[in-house]
Every structure is written in C-alpha cells, then in structure tokens.
Write a structure and sequence with these properties.
The protein is of the alpha/beta class. It has 22 helices and 21 strands.
Length: 634
C-alpha cells in the first residue's frame, strides 16, 4: 500500500492448517479496483495474505475432534495436518493500515464460508480503526448467506454477485449522498426494520469492463523463482450442474466468455509490464468451447512464443471437452500439466454428482498428455453425502492404474450448491461455518470421518509409490524383522538409533535423485503428496522457487522446524517413507514419524487399508519394481 485512498479493498487473513499461497492472488479485488479507478476513485488493496508470516494458534474448540487424526506431527510422506495457524497480517496491522489509508469506503472480500469469521473480525477491526467509514462485504459467502453477515453490526452493506457491476455505483451514491436502494446486488437494513436484498449483480458484457488493476497486487510476493505470476479469468460461470458446486448451481450466474483479444491483452500486460512468466487460468470450465479455446491457445503461442510462459488451469478441466488437437495446442502454448476433474469413476456416484461418466474422456486425455509430454493430475471427491467409502476406494484404484497423480479432496458443503441444500435437509451440515472446509472432515454420512481421513492418507501413499516407481526405486513388503522393528519402535514411543541410522545409510543420493527426476518433468507427485488439489499444486510448484534442488533431507528439516522441533539429526524423508511403506504393504498399518523421531501408528480404517492392498495386488501395483524400462502403476 502506498498511502491514502478513497477506497480500501481488503483480502482478510485466514486460519487453517495450511495455505496455498499462489492460489490467493486477489484477482477479484484487482478487477473491482479497475472499475472503481475508471470512475475516478483512488483505490488501494490491502492483501493480508501477501506475507510469509504465520503464527501457530490454538485449535478452535469446535475442531477438537480432529486431534484423533491430526494429533501428532508427521514428517513422513504420509502426514496430513497438525498445526493450526493464523496466516497473514495480524488484526492490529490491519488497523494500522486502515488508519493510514483514511478511506471513506472499505470493501472486504469473503469468498469461503469457512473463513467468514476472519472476514467479520476484519470488519470489526476496520470499524474500530475508522468509525466514520462505510464497510461493505462481498464475495461468495455473503452472496449466499447475507443474513448471517448482516448480523454483524460492523458491516453496513453486502453486495451480492459480481462486485465489478455494483461497488462503483455504491461508491458514487455514497459520495453524492444519494439513495443506495437501486444499487445492483445491495443488501441493507431498512428503516422500518429487517433487510432489503437485491438479486445478485451480474456483468452482462465482460469486455465492457477494464482489465484488472494488476499494479495493485503485490507482485514481489506472488513470484515463482525469478518470474512473476498472474491469474487470469477468461470466462465466468459454468453451464454444468455439478451437485457439489455452487457456481453451476447458481441460476443468476450465467456462463459467459470474454473475447480472445481481451484475454490476450490482459496476459500481455501481466508479462510485459509485471514480468509474469506463470499464468493460472482460474476459469470454472476453460476448455468447454473448442473454437474459442483454440483461438486463445493459438494467440498465446503466436504472441509469446514457445517456452516463454508456463500455463496452468488449476480449477480443473472437464475431460470430455478435450481432444488431441486441443491438448497438443495446450502444450505448444505453454501448459505443463493437465488438471483433470474426474469427480468419481463410479457411474452411480457420478450421477449423484450430476455429472456424466467422464472415464472415456479422462483416459483419452491422459493418453494425449503422455504423447505430448504433459503431466496430469486427476481430482476425485471423497466423503460427500451419500457417497460410499468403497466407491472412493475404487476411485483410488482407478487412478493407481493410470499415469496420473491422485488429487484427493474431502467434500465440504458449499452454500448455494444442491448438496448444501441436501445436507441441510438431512441434518448433515456442521454446526459452525468454520467447519465447512475439507481439513475439518465436515460430513460424516455414508463415509465416516475415519474413512475420509484414511482415504486421504491412502492417496498420499499411492502418490508416494508412483513417485518411487517413476524414479526406479524398488519397494516391497518389509521382512518380518523390519516390520517388528518399526512396530517395537512405535510401541516404545521413540525410534532408536538403528532406525535413523539405517534410514540415513540407505542410498545417500536417492532422495536427491528422485527430486532431480521430478525437476526434469518425470513425475508430478511430491515427496509429500497432496491432501487436496490445491495443496498438491503448491507442493508441485515449489520447484519454480528452486526447492526441488534441495535434498529431501533438507526438506524434512524445514518442515520439522515449521512444527517447532527438529530431529536430533537430519532425516531423509524418502527413505523413512520407504521403510514405513514396506510395513504398510505387509501389515496394512500406516505409521508416521514426528520431528523428534517418534514412530507412531495412525488411526485409520483397517477395512479400507486391506481393500486398498487387495486392489493393488489385483492390478499388479503392490511392488515398485526396477524391472520395467518404463515404469507405470499398471
């Protein structure tokens, strides 16, 4: 922030077990800011997440049940979460920034229901720091659940829908002292009591709006190594009606595309003025219209040349929308991976999700990706209402047979979606908004929380096996002595010198070789594979900052430091993972290791572990072998 401004737009801090930093670029605020600036207002963005600072905090009382699965830190490749943290600026720093800016209007973004508490506390902080300013809140959460937001006395207005179409009109009305009743999307307290709520605001013609104010984004923070990073949204809405998604379920949010020329101009600004070398398309369905998408890809390749840009579509691609020509053009334009939305390979579950059976399109996309040298991630959802753990296990085994990283996401209720309404009718909604996140294992229905947590760990195990197989590392079920050793160590509560010494003696360069293989594009999985799609993307993209040049030994020390402790001596996470994997393959038990060297058994569903092992055996993936020249989990 450079100083005073008429309008201050705030991306609040969040509290969670992890943060995927590069997915927090405040693109929406920059888009709203551009329209405000066109109307003559001075604008600043206070991005509370554009900082490396985070602070460990106590787990909220409503999340105490999660200690059953996240109670101890685990520096092995099979760890999930442990330390709950405040990510971003403190509320005291927010107050200082507001006092410096002296805005007459403050807009606060509240995108995800799980983080609405932080957004509301930000509003209260602003009210205390600048009692005379007007505070408005926008984003998905207040669009859908505006009544609860307006219960906060610090919030003057809610703007529902797309803020580019409404905030400048509200600002103009406030500045002129005129009525606000006709502002699109406005929610306000009526003089006679109660709320007045307009329908959500919609940008009818996307090309009529200015390009995002990229200069207001902290480009130094959102970098990938020596290159800048940018987000682009080339379309709005989605015509699909997936039951778990609030975008396709919103009747007011029509599917619209920008002109290719507008998108190319935005990319040119990001590249030429702000040094972007990485572009993430955050569209809900980027490849849906082939002619438009091909024109965009050809334009990128022609304007920026081969190899200049790295492109991704991290929100996921709809597999049936792709064909061989499109995948080849994506490679030529600069895409490095296909992020494929599978949902579920079970036809019955796909129908419950309101999706077609995409397996044929998924397999074709994988074949085309392999042909042109693109990595691939396949995303599945587990733990949804009515979804069985057995079907989710089959989804994992389906991904095990294919050259793709498994992106496992635990379902959470998204307000505005069909499944949110279903959960409300069935009494499955969590008791607090803060629990509506994947990390909270929020729904326990036909898949229990034990089963959801187990599926997450099995997804990590699967990706670790794929990583080892791509690197040509042999892993088989451990012998009896090795299994007894790990079990005895876990029973005593600490590892002895022999476990750590043996791990360190095993192939000293193996971990570095694995990471080097990955940096050459051999495999997309990380040494600590993902819990969900965004976590996987952040781990994978650390190579852009040079992290893959470090050995796994150094990485384990770094992660151990993050949880407040270091082992007595460095631990090679790859080798520790291999030892624990051997035990899992033989016994069906999943062990972890603390930074202090304690080996302990994770709480899991033994039934699911046994089913997973039986499935691996059936498809021939129970052993990572050196025998095949081109290793695959088939």
């Amino acid at each position: 922030m450079s100083g005073m401004a008429d309008i201050l737009l705030i991306q609040p801090p969040i509290r969670d077990f992890y943060l995927t930093a590069k997915r927090t670029i405040p693109y929406g605020l920059a888009s709203v800011a551009a329209e405000l600036m066109r109307e003559g207002f001075s604008v600043e963005i206070l991005d509370c997440l554009a900082t490396r600072k985070s602070k460990p905090i106590d787990l909220p009382v409503e999340m105490e049940y999660l200690k059953a699965w996240y109670g101890k830190p685990d520096i092995s490749p099979f760890g999930l979460f442990h330390r709950y943290r405040h990510y971003g600026l403190s509320f005291g720093k927010i107050a200082e920034a507001v006092r410096r800016a002296k805005p007459f209007l403050v807009g606060i973004s509240s995108l995800f229901t799980a983080y609405c508490g932080e957004a509301l506390r930000t509003a209260e902080t602003v009210r205390d720091a600048a009692p005379g300013c007007t505070i408005v809140m926008g984003g998905h959460h207040p669009t859908e659940l505006y009544e609860s937001v307006m219960e906060c006395g610090a919030v003057d207005f809610v703007l529902r829908g797309e803020g580019e179409a409404s905030l400048s009109l509200l600002a103009r009305a406030l500045r002129a002292g005129s009525g606000i009743e006709n502002v699109p999307g406005i929610v306000y307290r009526a003089a006679e009591g109660g709320l007045r709520a307009a329908d959500p605001a919609v940008m009818e013609d996307l090309d009529r709006y200015p390009l995002p104010a990229q200069g207001l984004i902290d480009g130094k923070f959102y970098r990938r190594g020596a290159r800048g990073a940018a987000v682009v949204t080339a379309s709005r809405g989605c015509p699909l009606g997936c039951s778990y998604c609030s975008i396709g379920g919103a009747e007011w949010l029509k599917y619209r595309r920008r002109s290719v020329d507008s998108v190319l101009r935005e990319i040119a600004v990001a590249v030429n003025e702000y040094g972007a070398g990485f572009i993430d398309f955050e569209d809900e369905n980027l490849s849906l219209r082939k002619a438009w998408f091909m024109e965009l890809l050809d334009g990128i390749a022609g304007r920026f040349g081969a190899g200049r840009l790295e492109l991704r579509a991290m929100n996921g691609l709809f597999p049936p929308s792709l064909d061989e020509e499109m995948v080849s053009a994506m490679k030529e334009a600069g895409f490095t991976a296909l992020n494929l939305s599978l949902g579920s390979a079970c036809p019955e579950q796909a129908r419950r999700f309101g999706r077609p059976d995409v397996r044929e399109g998924f397999d074709r996309a994988l074949a085309w990706a392999e042909r042109v040298g693109l990595n691939a991630v396949g995303y599945v959802i587990v733990g949804a209402p009515g979804q069985s753990a057995a079907d989710s296990m089959d989804d994992l085994l389906y991904l095990a047979e294919r050259p793709v990283v498994a992106g496992v996401s635990v379902y959470y209720p998204a307000p505005g979606s069909a499944d949110f309404a279903r959960c409300a009718r069935s009494g499955l909604l969590p008791g607090k908004f803060s629990l509506m996140r994947s990390t909270a294992l929020p729904v326990s229905d036909t898949t229990t929380r034990d089963e959801s947590a187990t599926l997450l760990r099995l997804g990590r195990i699967l990706n670790f096996m794929k990583l080892l197989e791509e690197a040509g590392r042999a892993v088989a079920a451990g012998n009896r002595e090795e299994r007894c050793e790990v079990g005895a160590r876990a029973g005593r509560g600490r590892t002895g010198e022999s476990f750590r010494a043996q791990a360190d003696r095993c192939s000293a360069g193996a971990a570095a070789d694995v990471m080097a293989e990955r940096s050459r594009g051999a495999m997309s999985a990380q040494a600590n594979p993902c819990v969900n799609g965004s976590d996987l993307e952040e781990r994978e993209d650390r190579r852009g900052a040079g992290a893959t040049a470090r050995s796994a030994r150094e990485a384990s020390r770094s992660e151990a430091a993050a949880v407040g402790a270091l082992p007595a001596e460095p631990v090679d996470r790859i080798e520790v993972g291999k030892r624990l994997l051997r035990v899992f393959l033989a016994e069906g038990k999943i062990f972890g290791m603390t930074p202090a060297g304690e080996v302990y058994e994770h709480r899991v569903s033994k039934r699911l572990c046994d089913r997973f092992l039986a499935g691996l055996s059936r498809i021939g993936a129970g052993r990572v072998s050196l025998d095949r020249p081109k290793n695959r989990m088939v």
